[in-house]
């Protein structure tokens, strides 16, 4: 009778002796390869910053170079909410050290921006979005803790008395010189790590601040679109004709004076043709084209414009994109292209 070969059913056997303890450690590591060292996950923290679109654009940088450098050099995981709202949430995940490094780099970028526009550098101000249940720990009994933070760091710290709309979070505003707010941020992170949120947290999500009635209207390919954030919403002809009687929709948003054709396109603009050329970084061109050309086809169909993407010139990092059509078609096509890019570089979570 043939006996089974034990090597087919068992892992490699290593002889263990009291004089070879390293082998014991090796076996334990092989048996538990995916278990993190004790306490490592407990040291991870999530920090949310509330920023204006211009501030987000500064830390993203041209072609996403700045945010890529911050992610790589700090080791923090950073995600930026989409660009459909005036305010955006920057979410950072990591240890206190990695978060502090990322925060320091963001503050340094803001200070560099201020140096280019101001002779006297004003205080750097950032807003943290903190669960209300943790704000009490930041304030401390009788305000003792927040007073200590102010005195030891020299930074100004303000905790909002009211929760942010439709959430259980408050804004914590820190302001001061570079070194002061960096130290202040680290102290707040330590408090949040030691005092986790209690109960369920309803996160704050920024919403559109522009009323749809005051949003711009674009005419393209026989269709009127109302611009809401990064989206162009088709308008029914009857709704558009109701707007046509108004002198303007809002400050700086004028309506066309010419009569509308049945399809909603101004009659005197229907036959005008023009051309516009824009430049897109080659590493972002893929998000515009999409898999199998799906995205570029959608943009062509929605806008009615003719869009041609030139081959990459030798030694260049940019691609030339030519958009042809009526002024309205070109405007909508360019809007959709830039919205697609903003969504791609602003909303991707890059992990390490």
TrEMBL record:
InterPro entries: KH_dom (IPR004087), KH_dom_type_1 (IPR004088), KH_dom_type_1_sf (IPR036612). Residues 43-111, 122-193, 272-342 form the K Homology domain. Keywords: Repeat, RNA-binding. The keyword RNA-binding applies. Gene3D superfamilies: K Homology domain, type 1. It comes from the Eukaryota. GO terms for molecular function: RNA binding. This is K Homology domain-containing protein. It comes from Adineta steineri.
